[in-house]
Every structure is written in C-alpha cells, then in structure tokens.
Amino acid sequence: MNNKIKRTVFMLCLALVFVLAGCAKGDDSEQTETTVQETAEEKDDTVDKLEEEEKADNAEQKEDNTAETQEIAAGGSLAIPVSELSGTVRFYPVTVDEVDMEVLAVKDAEGNIRTAFNTCQVCYSSGRGYYKQVGDRLVCQNCGNQFTVDQIEVLSGGCNPLPIFSEDKTETADSVTINYDFLKEVTQVFANWKASY
Q1: Could you tell me the pTM of the whole model?
Q2: Which of 152, 60, 56 is CA-nearest to residue 103?
Q3: What is the pLDDT of residues 94-128, one digit of tens each?
Q4: Where in the chain are the domains?
Q5: Are the CB atoms for 129 and 109 separated by under 8 Å?
Q6: What fold, for 70-190?
Q7: How far is Cα of residue 104 from the mean position of the Cα atoms in its chain?
Q8: Largest CA distance in the chain
Q9: What Rg do the C-alpha atoms of the chain give, in angstroms?
Q10: How far is Cα 135 from Cα 148, in angstroms, rounded to an integer?
Q11: Quick check: 82 pLDDT over 70?
C-alpha cells in the first residue's frame, strides 16, 4: 500500500505541475497579446501624428506659396505675375484637359526667373515624384534628391525638376506665360502625380 500511495502522490504532483505550467503559459500569452496590441496602438498613434504633420505642412505650404488652381483650356495660357516671385519657390497648380499639374517659379540670386514643372524627371511615375521647398533647397518627395534654386531650368533629363526653358514660355516685365499647347505636351508625366499616399 505504501507504493500505491507514493504512486498516487507522484501522479497528483505531476498533474499539478502540468496544470501550473499551463496556467503560467496562458498568462504569458495574454501578456504578449497585450504588449503586441499596445505596440500596434503606439504605431497607429505615430502614423496618425505623422499624417497630421504632413497635412499641416501641406496646408502651410499652400497658404504661403501656392497660387489658386488655374484651369487652362485650348488657346489659353498659364499666367504667372512677376510681382509674386521671390527667392522662395512659388507653386502654380493648373488643370489641363482634366490632368492636375503644377509649375514652380522662383527668382534666383541675380533676379532671373526660373521655371519648371513640379515633377521629377525620373520619379514622376511613382506618384511621389514632386518637390517641396526645405530651406533653400527643393527636395524630391520620392528619392530625396535636392536642388538649389540656381539649378532649376538648367538641365533636362535626370533626377531634377522638368525645366520650362525660355523658348517654352513668354516672359515680360509683368508676367511669365506658358501656353496650353506646351502644357498639354507634358500631361502624361502628371498622370500618376501625387497619387500614392
């Protein structure tokens, strides 16, 4: 009988160990689930904050240096008043044949007016191939390449703003105009513009 009691006690102890081990594992699982949930919530909060900051930056940029959208039809032109231009890049949104586009214009250190389309010649198809001014530089929102004002309207090709050269615009003391026909030629590079957020 002594062996029978020992065996029963042993079996009870063994069962108790399994039960306690299982309970401990359940607690860890709940704790892990809680930690994962808290981490996901923190990530969501961070993403929300970044999105709010980007919206605020975009709103601030729009208030400070973005003109009202102009719809350009056949026979029309985008008109940029020279009086609006300074060393800070100004953005001119236009709609040409239902395609949203943007032209940027700025005066360089010598007072020359420089113009380009606000799209990167390499990154345009990504949807994020456009520029924002950060300090004295334009920064591509896709690849991060940076350009100074003096580099605008200098090169064609490569990863820089698509230039609008002097032969593609009319410049007077009062305005810079870019005609519909030239704007229409470039609509294909804006097909996916600012589309992937």
Answers
A1: 0.66
A2: 152
A3: 999 999 999 999 999 999 999 999 998 888 888 88
A4: 1-64, 70-190
A5: no
A6: Rieske Iron-sulfur Protein (2.102.10)
A7: 17
A8: 115
A9: 31
A10: 10
A11: yes
